[in-house]
Structures are given as structure tokens and as C-alpha cells.
Amino acid sequence: MLKPILLVEDNPNDLELTLIALSKSQLANQVIIVRDGAEALDYLHRRGDYASRPAGNPAVVLLDLKLPKVDGLEVLREIRSTDGLKPLPVVMLTSSKEEQDLVRSYELGVNAYVVKPVDFTEFVRAIADLGIFWAVLNEPPPGSQRYIKPSK
Amino acid sequence: MTQAVTAPVLDLSTCDKEPIRTPGSIQPHGFLLTLAPDLTVLQASANLGDWSGVPANAAIGRPLADAIGEEAARRLAPELAADLGQRPFYVGTVTTGNDRHFDVLAHQWDGVINAEFEAVDRAEPADFRHLYPLIGDFLHKVNDSSSIESLAALACQHVRSVTGFGRVLVYRFDADGHGHVMAEARDERYHSYMGQHFPASDIPVQARELYKLSRIRLIQDATYTPAPLVPPLNPVTGKPNDLSFAALRSVSPVHLQYMRNMNTLASMSVSLMVRGELWGLISCHNEGPTPVAFEKRTACEQLGQILALCIESREDAADLQFRLEVRRTMVSMLAGLTQGSDFIENLSSVFPDLLRFARASGVAIMVDDRILTYGDTPEQDDILALVNWLTLHDHGDVFHTDKLSALYPPAERMIRNASGLLAMPISRIHKHYLLWFRPEWVHTIEWAGNPHSKAPAPGAPTQLSPRTSFAAWRETIHGTSLPWHGGEIEMALEFRTALLGIALERAEQMAELAEELGRANKELEAFSYSVSHDLRAPLRHIVGFADLLLESAGSEDAQQRQRFLKNIKDAARLAGKLVDDLLSFSQMGRASLRPTTVDMNDLVAACLDKLALETRGRNIEWDIGPLPTICADPTFLHLAMFNLLSNAVKFTGQRDPAVIRVVAEDHPMETVFHVADNGAGFNMEYVHKLFGVFQRLHRMEDFQGTGIGLANVRRIVERHNGRVWAHAVQGEGATFSFALPKQHPQH
């Protein structure tokens, strides 16, 4: 029984690399992809294009820090200030090593902060670890969506 | 006959309240009649009988002729019927029925005509001719640019030669009302008062007021017996007559005693009015009674007026000169102050000027609790306490004293170098003070009698004796400094205003600088951020896809391999463009603008040429212009316009046809340009991010770009002191606008 991962990523290259990494860990099928902060919030709030999706939160949000329109920090802030979304695990995924981004993220209550490694092997390992930890090992808060692993 | 006068019992403390304008009597060297408009006698002085042979009581209610004789009355009637002023006016010399001669002065006051008859021993009218050589001689000498002192001495000599008084002196009043004898002419038998001081209390307040109104005053014999008016009350007003302007007005008994104590039986004083204030007096004394005829008094009064005018012009000139000097010092100081960046350091760099400016011996600048001093000043702790006291007792913009210890007792121990203080706050908010100190100026004043013991000596003969001694009495003054000049105080205020102005300007500059620094910092942060983030991303992609490519080497998925290669190429191109954009953005902040005349039609045409490659194969309707010629840096402006046009081309990618319009609006202060397209537009919710560095409102694959283009546009426009804004409707198009001021940019 696996839980879905919400991946918020605008950069197509990053998206492709991330999906490749997740597929290497057999997790790609559990990924819901949104392309910017606004879309992520629409998904989480079940509104707009996502108004008719079933209720329940993903197991984890893999959130790019730098996004068009609403950036990662703003998405995080809204998650942490919205009843029903507050306990949702959020992992900040970013290219930035800027300390202020790290500090702001933790201030806003991020669960983990991961700098995307430049080396692809490390990148794959990092993404795989993240997926396995949050989507498999971690016991999500009540109310998270439960998915049956689709047969290969 | 003369009635006995009961002198009112006076004690000295009531000097200020004495009714000197309404004494009810006159000096008896003439007589006074008050007349109705039809010249009926309303009142007569009791000595009328002595002079004209008609008893006062017999004249009351009778025509003027009954009191002075037919001929004299006929002679005066037309003069008295004319509109008389309120100042005594010489109406002629008459001979009364009993063959005595009188100069007649008349004035209208208190509801009646006051006719004063002064006895003379000639039948002819007063002769003013010797007035002219006197004044002519004085005026002649005035031109020899002599000092006020020597002019006053000259006036003394002239007055003495005209009147025959034994001693004539000029004294001026100081700020406290004490008189100081500055010039003197005397018979050698008379002792000198030169240089001595007379206490202010010698001349009560109401006497000073009267000196201002009535400019000359003769007391011809201090031993006289006053002649009261009959009846005693003015029938028109029902009150004692106001004799303010009457030449014969009787004198206060206290003053007569004062004169007798001084061994002076006759006195005359001429008021010196400078700038409407009683500046001083020409004061004449004689041991014996001294009559001074009307025309001679007039000459002396004229002389007094000329002397006063001379004093006024000399003082004005000296004052102006003084102020000019102080201002000169101030201006040079201010010039020094605007140089450096540290205001306090600047102030301390002009310390010597600050001293000179206020003729001070010490100066202190207090900023918060830091005190900088120069010259001879009190100890830091004392200055701190003093400023605290000043702060507590709000003294307005400037505080000054030449006797600090009298106001602030702790200053007793600072008397040596801080008897005088000029202090002012130089900030409206903080405890910042500028203080000037003047040292103690020990000096002696020679009083004509001890002013501190005015009460009569024990066993003094009469309680009416105001001063029993006029022997020189020396007093040493401690704890005071040289007084502050009015010009110094005014200039200090001006200086303060200038300082506040400088401080304010500096604050504004600082704010501006801070704002600029803030923006520069933000940009710098954005720089390092983009290096760490935006540049790392394409590099990571290159590495990632290259790794994948290596991994899949030998696999037959050619399509996937192609895509990886394309991704690598895109990422590398993006990284290169990012580096270029970063460079150009950083250049934009540094390079100086070279504004010149730019024809915007040409500039836009050049941009379109450059865009040709990108727009090839696209169906774009260009709607350009007419555009004005403006003043701007052509290179920078070209870049800005190119960015906007290229943006428009990019965001109309899915339109067929794409419509891109460039229009200009002319406003009084600025020229506004709009670049409008029918492209994708953007959500106005995020418009605040639009011009930020490395901000994108669209996904990478939708619209390629590094996120620097619009930041560049803003930077260029703002460096031209212009502003930039945008408006869009999502899915329908966007309009980017910028306004450039019509003046030359200053940067």
C-alpha cells in the first residue's frame, strides 16, 4: 500500500530527471505532478482543475523552492496555515544552497530541505531515498490518501 | 495770594505710583490759565495775582481779557482760536495790563486750552535766530565722523553755552535702566560725574514714560513753592488736570528733594529718543536757580533731536558692521560644514571659527552623551548637568545670559569660564546642543552714590530724602560676562536654522543613499542567489542528461538519446544566456548614462531589425508609432525597448496574427511609451513580481527566458529617473509601459 507523492516542479528538465530517479526506485507511478505553486494549491484545496479529485492528502509534497507565480515558500506558508493541510509532510527540493532559503523554510515548518545534487547519480539516490522514506517508510498523518500499488 | 500747599506724605516705595502728570499745581515762574473754546477762564493758577494783578478767584468764569488785559487778550484770541496741537506751541509774547511781559505757550489737552505764561523781561517776540548757528555748528561737526561720545560731548558744550548751566551731561540708559554718564561739559567749580552710573531707581517708570512724551523739562528753582490750580479740578473732566505737556508742570516733591540733596537748584533734561525708545538724557544742573527762555529750550530740544538721530545712525551702522562680521564668520563656517560626511566632526573642525563667531572663550558640542569641547570650558560633568538643566527648562530656540549663576546656581563654580552662556539645541529630536561660554568679566562700576542703600541714612532730616549722598561709590561686579550682542543672538539662531537645514539635507541624502544601497544589496543578493540557483540548475541538467546518456550507451532507444542531447544543448544555451544576462545586468548598474537626443522611431526600427530572425515565419502585425524624439541614453534605451519587444514576440507565440503596438503619449513632465501585445498575458495577482530579478511568471517550456529581461527594463528606466509598470488580462494580452521625465537624467 503506497501513498501518492505530490511533485511541484516547473522546470521540464528537473521534472524529467526527477521522474527518472523516482522510476528507478519503482515510485514513479505514485507521483502527481503539478507545474507551479498556484496549481499545487489548487490540487491541495481541491479546487479549479482538481475540484473533483477524491478527498485526502498526499503522503508528501516534494516542493521546488523557486516556482513561477506562487513560489515554494508561499505554498509552504499556506499549507501550514490551512486546517487540514497543516500536518502534511513537505520536503523542499531546491538548487539553492542559500542559507536564508533554508532558514525561511524551517521557520515556515518544512519537514526536510534537500539541495538537488549536481551529480546525477547522487541526484537519483537522493530522490529515491526521499521517495522511499516519505512514501513508504513514513507513517503519514491521518487523512492521507491510500493508493493500491498498481500492478506492473 | 498763594495758598499754602500741604505736601502729600510720600514714602519712597510709592515713587512709582506718584501722580506726576496730575500734580494739581505748577512751578511759579509763570502762570497758567485753562480756557474754554470761547476763551472764558475755567481755571487759573493761584499765583495769577502775583503776575497780572488779577487774583485767581476773580478771573474764574470771566473772559480772558479780564485776567490779562484787553490788549494781550486781543493779541492772543486769533492764535488760541486756531486748532492748537497737544504739544505746547509758542503763540507769541504779550504784555499784560500791568505791563509785564510773557512768552505764551498754548496746547489743547484734557478738554481745555492750557495757556502758559512764562515771565520774560522783553516786550519783543522770542528770537530764534541764535538757534541756527548753534545747530549749524553742531551739524557741521557731526559730519566729521566723530564717535557718539564726542558728539555727546559737543552737544553738552552747546547746551551749556546756550543755557548757562554749570554742568551739562549726557547719560545713556543700559538694558537694566541704569544710567551711565558718557559725556560732560561743566564749570570747573562743579565736580565731575563723568563715567559714573546712576541707578535705574533714580528715575521711576512713569517719569521715564513722561520723558518719552515730553522731550524737554525745566525745573528752574528747586526751592519753589508750587502754585495750585483754582479750582483744583478740571471743570470739563471733573478730575485733576493732566499737565503732561505743560512746561510749567509742578515737580514731584521727591524729585525736588533729590535735587536739593544733589546741591542742584535748577535742572533741565532733554530726552534722547533713539528708535522710539528713551536712549538717554541730556541733563543740566546748576547750583542756583536758572531760568531758560522758551526759545533757548527749543534750541536745546532741537539739538537733542539731532544728537539722537546721529546716535541712531551711528548705532545702526555699527550694528550692521558687527552683524556683517558675524555673518561673514558664519558663512565661512557653514561652507566648512557641508564638506565632510560626519556632521559632528565637521562642527569640531570649525571650532576656532565657532569661538570667533560668538566672541566666546570656550565652545562645546554635545551629541547624545558625547561632549566635544574647545577652548576654556567647564568640566564635562558640569556641561552635562547644564545641558540637562537646559533641557528641563525649555528655553526655546536659543538661551543666553551674561550671568549664568543668577539663573542656575550650580554655575557658581563655573564662574571663571562660564559666566556667560549662549546655548541652543541643534536637533529637534535628540539632545544635541551647541554651547558657547564667556568668561567672567570682573569690572567696577562707579555709582553716583551707593545704589544698594537708597534708604536715608539714620537721622536723615526728612523721609522725603531719596538720596542723601552722591559721592562716588565703587562697586566691583562679579559673575557676569560681556553681554551678548543682539546680532550674535540673531546670527546664532540663523546658524541653528542652517545647521538644521544641513542636518535635514544630510538625513535626506542618507535616506536616499540607504534606499539606493538597499536596492543594490537586493540586486547583489539576487545575483548570488541566481549563481547558486539559476545557474546551478542548467549545469545540473547538463550533468544529469549526460549521465543518462552514458548510462544508456548501447541501448537502442535513439529517440530518448536525441531528447537527452537536446536537453543538454538547451541547458547549456540557457546557462550561457544566463551568464550573459547577469553580466549585462551588472553592467547596467555601473555604466554611466550618456544621454543624448534619441529618435524613438529609429530606435524601434533598429530593434525590429534585430528581432527579424526570431520573427521569421511568424504572422505579426506591427503597429508602430508616430514616436517622439527624447533625451536618453540610446544604448540602454535600445536594450530596454528590445527586451519589451522581444517579450511581446515571445508571449504572442501562439497568436495568428500576433498584434504588437508601440505608442507614445506626451505629458507635460514626461513621455510615456506603451508596448502592447495580444499574447498570453499574465495574472495581475503576480504583477508585483514582474520586474524583479530572476522572476518568471510562466513555466520554462512555455516561454524561454532567464527572468532578467524585465528587471533590466526597470533598471534602465529607473536610472533615467523614470518609472515602469505593466497591465495584462490573462490570455488576452499585456501592455508594458514606461515613462521618462523630460529633464536630463542626473546620473
Question: How do the strands and helices of this protein lay out in sequence?
Answer:
The complex is a heterodimer of chains A (152) and B (747).
Chain A: E1 5-8, H1 12-24, E2 31-34, H2 37-45, E3 60-64, H3 72-80, E4 90-94, H4 99-107, E5 112-115, H5 120-137
Parallel strand pairs in A: 1-2, 1-3, 3-4, 4-5
Chain B: E1 25-26, E2 30-35, E3 41-45, H1 48-52, H2 56-59, H3 64-68, H4 70-81, E4 89-95, E5 101-109, E6 112-120, H5 131-142, H6 148-163, E7 167-173, E8 179-186, E9 197-198, H7 205-213, E10 216-219, E11 227-230, H8 253-261, E12 266-274, E13 277-286, H9 294-337, H10 343-349, H11 351-357, E14 362-367, E15 370-375, H12 380-392, E16 399-401, H13 404-407, H14 415-418, E17 420-425, E18 432-438, E19 443-448, E20 472-477, H15 486-532, H16 536-551, H17 558-590, E21 596-599, H18 600-615, E22 620-624, E23 629-632, H19 634-651, E24 658-666, E25 670-677, H20 709-719, E26 723-729, E27 733-741
Helix pairs in contact in B: 5-6, 5-9, 6-9, 9-11, 9-15, 16-17, 17-20, 18-19, 19-20
